[in-house]
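As the next step, I needed to go through one protein, both as residues and as discrete backbone shape codes, included below for the reader:
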Amino acid sequence: MSVQTLYTAATGMEALEMKLDVIANNLANINTVGFKKDRANFEDLFYRQYRLPGATDADGNITTTGTDVGLGVKVAGTQTDHDQGAFQNTGNQLDFAIEGNGFFEVNGPNNEPYYTRAGNFGINANGNLVLGSAQNGYPLTTAINIPQEATGIVVTSTGEVQFRTAGQPDLQVAGNLTLATFINPDGMLKMGDNLFAATAASGPANAGQQPGAAGVGSIRQNFLEASNVEPVSELIDLINTQRAFELNSQVVQAGDQIMQIVANLRRA
């Protein structure tokens, strides 16, 4: 029994170590634009059944409870929290935030479709809007080109991208930002670089939607969506996780002491 105690406590320490990794990643990305925090979900492992509930005892009575011992815990999965992050007013005309549901659609490596909440865009050498730095950014799936002579850019809440040129009082339309939504955004795969990919769990992207339409967020120019990590909550969770890890380590020590006592009895 004491040997099983060691293994059971070890599963708890291993699961809590992964939770610490999740918390560390959340805190590391506290200033990452559009970052969505994760949460580690636990579930208990299978049980050793000594007596099943409802079994008949020696007197023919049906037992009201059974006798079982759990064999530990595991991380069932990490769940992404897609709650809205705070808005940061940057004053940059190429910064866009999504207020509500949806993701920007970009072409990632190998021209594959990827999705992001980060709205820090730039203009590359060809005049196209790209995510991130102008040199290495990912272009929008629906290309939007800003001419070199443009002196200002205006983006409406519905995603229409307009620009003005010197000597022209009227705004001209360069294109429209579109958003993608998912029936299960928790099932999206995090790719790094602020990018998500669709999976069988997330379902296919409902792409090409107009911002501000029913169920789709609107665009806010000159703003960025900050990370939705809450430092105080993460630090409290960190302390609780540390204490739980310490408790499991004490169980390992207790199991070791019991084994030592048993071994001493045998020698006696």
Remarks:
- The chain has two domains: 2-82+230-267, 87-225.
- The chain has a mean pLDDT of 91.
